[in-house]
From TrEMBL:
The keyword tRNA-binding does not apply. This is GNAT family N-acetyltransferase. Residues 3-156 form the N-acetyltransferase domain. The keyword Aminoacyl-tRNA synthetase does not apply. InterPro entries: Acyl_CoA_acyltransferase, Bact_Acetyltransf, GNAT_dom. It comes from the Bacteria. GO terms for molecular function: acyltransferase activity, transferring groups other than amino-acyl groups. Keywords: Acyltransferase, Transferase. It holds the Pfam family Acetyltransf_1.
Length: 161
């Protein structure tokens, strides 16, 4: 199977949104507060492009199987809503999506990328740590029900792994 990661366009916002929705569905009713991803609309995805951000799509055998959105925040590239359809997980798609966005960041002279991950999803924390992301901050929801890590990766050596 050939995996292709391409930069997406605003015209693919609905596709990006549908992949994200299907990928985050497993968290429905399991997180407090609920994942904001499940309350977004396609307009949220479109807005990413409107504010100068973008997205990448993962394609396998002509099927869109993953996506990630990104935008420049201060002096780093924020990568969010990283999504891989459940039936395609465990094939390196998430890593390929991240590497593509990290490459885009480096091409723009940005030396750091960041993601945010809930502590209640430890498998995602472990995955990002495997991809050389490190915890730089812990934030808390106002309700006190959960918290999340801000994780960063310094990109100067990111492509060497």
């Amino acid at each position: 199977m050939t995996l292709i990661i391409k930069e997406a366009t605003v015209h693919e916002s609905d596709l990006i949104y549908q992949i994200m929705l299907a990928s985050f569905q497993e968290y429905s009713g399991k997180l407090t507060p609920p994942s904001g991803a499940l309350h977004e609309t396609v307009e949220h995805t479109m807005r990413t492009f409107e504010v100068g951000g973008g997205a990448v799509l993962a394609w396998e055998e002509g099927n869109a199987v993953g996506s990630a959105r990104y935008k420049l925040v201060d002096d780093y590239m924020y990568i969010g809503r990283v999504s891989v359809l459940p039936e395609y997980r465990g094939r390196g798609i998430c890593k390929a999506l991240l590497r593509r966005v990290e490459s885009i960041a480096q091409q723009q002279g940005i030396a750091e990328s960041r993601v945010e991950v809930r502590l209640s999803i430890p498998e995602n924390i472990a995955m990002y740590q495997k991809f050389k992301y490190e915890v730089v901050e812990q934030k808390f929801y106002p309700e006190g029900t959960d918290s999340w890590y801000v994780m960063r990766k310094i990109l100067s050596d990111a492509m060497a792994e």
